[in-house]
Amino acid sequence: MHNDVLGDIHIASRTLSKCEAIIGSILDKKALKRPGILAAHRLDAMDVEATKALIRQTKSQIVLNAGSAFLNMSVLRACIDVGVAYIDTAIHEDPTKVCETPPWYGNYEWTHREECERKGVTAVLGAGFDPGVVNAYAALAANAYFDRVDSIDIIDVNAGSHGRYFATNFDPEINFREFTGTVWSWQESQWTANKMFEVKRTDELPMVGSQTTYLTGHDEVHSLSANLDVPDIRFWMGFGEHYINVFTVLNNLGLLSEKPVVTAEGLEVVPLKVVKAVLPDPMSLAPNYKGKTFIGDLVKGVRDGVETELLVYNISDHEEAFAETNSQAISYTAGVPAIAAAMLIAKGDWDCHHMANVEELPPVPFIALLETLGLPTRVRDAKGDRAFDPGEFRQDRRQSARAGA
Amino acid sequence: MHNDVLGDIHIASRTLSKCEAIIGSILDKKALKRPGILAAHRLDAMDVEATKALIRQTKSQIVLNAGSAFLNMSVLRACIDVGVAYIDTAIHEDPTKVCETPPWYGNYEWTHREECERKGVTAVLGAGFDPGVVNAYAALAANAYFDRVDSIDIIDVNAGSHGRYFATNFDPEINFREFTGTVWSWQESQWTANKMFEVKRTDELPMVGSQTTYLTGHDEVHSLSANLDVPDIRFWMGFGEHYINVFTVLNNLGLLSEKPVVTAEGLEVVPLKVVKAVLPDPMSLAPNYKGKTFIGDLVKGVRDGVETELLVYNISDHEEAFAETNSQAISYTAGVPAIAAAMLIAKGDWDCHHMANVEELPPVPFIALLETLGLPTRVRDAKGDRAFDPGEFRQDRRQSARAGA
């Protein structure tokens, strides 16, 4: 839909038919803005040399890594070597490890910071919705709304329903990994460890009403804690009682383990892979998904000497997302911001020539662009609940604070 | 403990070390009543010719099949061919089928009835506790207590605790099969189909207190309905809410299926076998098992022209069972009655020279013998709750009813 800005578009996957299905859907919807190249390629993105060859062959200038979390390091390596821009939407994971020590970016991506800087390679990390847009919301609040931020609570609620007994909204292997390890949060300016489902909160949220969410370990806490001077940064994810019950049973029985067990017949099997095999394919849920998602930042701090609370958020609708893209709102909110990031790099706004998490880049152009891409932002504070207005956030309060000091 | 009656004892299994462990435990406890042969043998009891050879080699006269439910047909075949007595404790199952159409015995065991009769082979089917002792309780009530029986409700409650998050008390593969198919019961003199956990009752039971049990498909309903003229025969099993929750989650997800699934990596796996691999080994539960089991028959009918209710039951204690046999009460109650059946065949009381379910054999010698083997019976009726007294049940009321007619 944005090849007027992005130019030629090449889609690559281990499974060529997946790329071709996406291209078919785009052509069916007559979504290309102007005639141009839209091509499918077979690629194992763990193979750095093959990835470099494909980048060169297609003359790509921006690589959007929307693959599994296990690919980041190989795709980033290829981009640095060739000297093209890199974007991803989630933190790197080692398939053999669950929940490493914080800050997670420090274990993988940030070890390439200096090299990106030196070679002038733009690498935008975590440019989905969460991480991604919520990082921009945090930067917006810290830079252009508050004089001092005391806490950022990122709240992610899927208030929709897929109508199945139980399913994960994306690959169960990746999904469950978020909840089986230690929950790391940044509290009182230090890392705090909790267990999953140990700490919860209930908020009255716009559009989706009263929602209970649970303290969860998540990518953005690991960069925001390093990049913003805020003592409390937490991530909260909404779960229904039914989800928690099923998760708890499977986890307590050991069925979510990535470590192999041996059956009585001597077959070595990873239980989590069997659970994945019996669960519905997340792709199959989209056509019947109903309801809305809420993702936003509840930020507390001081503005003009007054204790203030700001909620910056997006509401997305599963059925509307499916009508536009054949995907439900969870995929939609994760995928569209990465396209916005690519467009901002193409236009120059975000072509920073170093490695950056989203909160290190100008938030207003990103949020304003997302308004036009189907992801509108709203804000709620003492003045009420209203659509995001870039004019409200034009002043860099950090500069005015420094000027006043 | 009863080789004075049973003579030489040979134990056979695919895994020789299991037999040797049993023999070691017997010798440790100095439990042999008199010097005699107690020997271990390796045998695949699916191999009829090997089984026949072992019977002949050991000069066995009584074969007690305490193997898995998949072995009945091959062991029975061997016994008929050699002409020795056969005992089992549960109905035959085909590993590829779950919950066949009733009556279950009609699909397998009873197809050999005529041959046993013709060749004079004693074959006692289902001689554990349930099926087994509860069939004898039903016969006792029908033959020697009531003039007319209207209903028999067999109630099985394990009020003990193993202290683990979740475990099955015997092989999960066999255990879950009892609950994943249709629940068949005999009501108003016909087969009635229900789903598991669809129908429940709560009773105030001796020793174990108020207990909720669920209508369950079980072997004895299939023989009692054919052998006794009683319109309502039902089996009820006790489950805690936690057990039902875990079972429901696993079952709804498809993790209790015996049909293979294929993982994303192309590995073909039977989910139930993976669940079995992650659950505690049932054998490992025994040392820490605490509490009691209740198994009994609640029988309603008419006696001397009056509507009457009789409860015939046994209470067993997990810790006492473990002290005597290194097994918990569920194994104890299933295993000891089969020994009693073997002793009654050896003595002649039950050496009937045809195929019989337990309710077709004299109940009083069986129940009286179990008194001396650690499984005492109690009765409760309008006259109160008391120990079983054989003298109370000496008269065959069917004969007196016929004499009076």
Automatic annotation (TrEMBL), chains A, B:
<feature type="compositionally biased region" description="Basic and acidic residues">
    <location>
        <begin position="384"/>
        <end position="399"/>
    </location>
</feature>
<dbReference type="Pfam" id="PF16653">
    <property type="entry name" value="Sacchrp_dh_C"/>
</dbReference>
<dbReference type="Pfam" id="PF03435">
    <property type="entry name" value="Sacchrp_dh_NADP"/>
</dbReference>
<feature type="domain" description="Saccharopine dehydrogenase NADP binding">
    <location>
        <begin position="2"/>
        <end position="124"/>
    </location>
</feature>
<dbReference type="InterPro" id="IPR005097">
    <property type="entry name" value="Sacchrp_dh_NADP-bd"/>
</dbReference>
<feature type="domain" description="Saccharopine dehydrogenase-like C-terminal">
    <location>
        <begin position="128"/>
        <end position="372"/>
    </location>
</feature>
<dbReference type="GO" id="GO:0102143">
    <property type="term" value="F:carboxynorspermidine dehydrogenase activity"/>
</dbReference>
<protein>
    <submittedName>
        <fullName>Carboxynorspermidine synthase</fullName>
        <ecNumber>1.5.1.43</ecNumber>
    </submittedName>
</protein>
<keyword id="KW-0560">Oxidoreductase</keyword>
<dbReference type="InterPro" id="IPR036291">
    <property type="entry name" value="NAD(P)-bd_dom_sf"/>
</dbReference>
<feature type="region of interest" description="Disordered">
    <location>
        <begin position="384"/>
        <end position="405"/>
    </location>
</feature>
<dbReference type="InterPro" id="IPR032095">
    <property type="entry name" value="Sacchrp_dh-like_C"/>
</dbReference>
